UniProtKB/TrEMBL annotation:
Organism: Archangium gephyra
Keywords: Coiled coil
Region Disordered, residue ranges: 1-102
Ranges in coiled-coil conformation: 245-272
Biased amino acid composition, Basic and acidic residues: 92-101
Official protein name in the record: Uncharacterized protein
Length: 301
């Protein structure tokens, strides 16, 4: 019996992110239009998909211990925790997806705000320099801010994709992602603990006001799916957008090393179909290209 056909290596639609695997990682500017915004509704009928693990994951990707808070994988960590109100939208399962995992739950507004407040309280009690306090606060807040974007992000993620792939890109009709990113930049600029807490409180007010909207704008992931082949998830894009310049540089270097390690492993398996290795390689390569584009968007190299 002949062996099964090999999996396609990637899309061939002419998208710059579908270049040959050994070519330099760069994104050429081109014109992208935003898809039509989805209708505003409060429904919970979100598509479910997978939660990937990325070798290029940022250092502040997980909250570090809020006892009693529900986990973001769909399970609560203690009795009496708020029930989930739906399933988080995620990059849809596409032709190039080869991973699956349990969908994440949607936290109600009061649970999101409680998590933000607990992280702020912990930051206020810390007796360490402002740098580590900020890092811890970002670690605790990132999954919660992702929840807010997923619940009320509108076309913000699609607009960000156009800014990366077709600079200067388009401005979002729903400015939540840009507003959160601006707040995070002010957080990064804080030089003392008091200023850090004040900037964090401003972000908390923005989140509370967003969650009070009775008819939030549902998030669109159309360009994220179409232009990034469904390989970069909401949390990864937000972590790149919210990263400091130093964090971004560290992640880019780590991703480049991961790519080289995976290249060596695939070359050592000549004659064998390294499907799992290629999947990791393709995912990290797209993420690296996104980080490179973000560095250029900021005026770096």
């Amino acid at each position: 019996m002949p062996p099964p056909p090999s999996k396609p290596k990637g899309p061939t639609r002419g998208v710059p992110l579908g270049q040959d695997d050994d070519e330099p990682t760069k994104i050429e500017p081109r014109r992208l239009g935003l898809p039509k915004p989805p209708a505003r509704s409060r429904g919970d009928g979100f598509d479910t998909s997978d939660v990937p693990t990325n070798p290029g994951r940022p250092v502040f990707d997980k909250p570090r211990g809020n006892p009693g808070m529900p986990s973001l994988s769909g399970e609560t960590t203690s009795p009496g925790s708020p029930a989930f109100t739906g399933v988080a939208p995620e990059v849809r399962q596409s032709r190039w997806h080869d991973r699956s995992a349990a969908p994440r739950g949607v936290l109600p507004a009061e649970a999101v705000l409680k998590g933000l407040d607990e992280a702020l309280q912990k930051a206020g009690q810390a007796r360490v320099p402002v740098g580590p306090v900020r890092e811890q606060l970002k670690a605790d807040w990132l999954p919660l801010l992702r929840q807010v974007v997923e619940q009320a992000g509108g076309d913000g993620m699609d607009a960000y994709v156009t800014q990366l792939l077709s600079p200067p890109g388009r401005q979002a009709v729903t400015p939540l992602v840009d507003a959160l990113a601006s707040g995070m930049e002010r957080l990064e600029a804080a030089t003392d603990a008091e200023t850090l807490r004040a900037r964090a409180q401003e972000l908390r007010v923005l989140v509370a006001r967003t969650l009070e909207d009775a008819a939030p704008s549902p998030i669109s992931l159309e360009l994220q799916e179409r232009e990034l082949d469904g390989r970069v998830d909401v949390d990864t894009l937000l972590s790149i957008r919210f990263a400091s310049s130093a964090e971004l540089a560290t992640r880019r270097a780590r991703a480049e090393k991961t790519l080289e390690d995976l290249r060596q492993q695939m070359r050592a398996l000549q004659g064998v179909q390294p499907d799992g290795l290629f999947s990791n390689f393709a995912r990290v390569k797209v993420e690296k290209r996104v980080m490179d584009a973000e560095a250029r968007r900021r005026g770096g190299r």
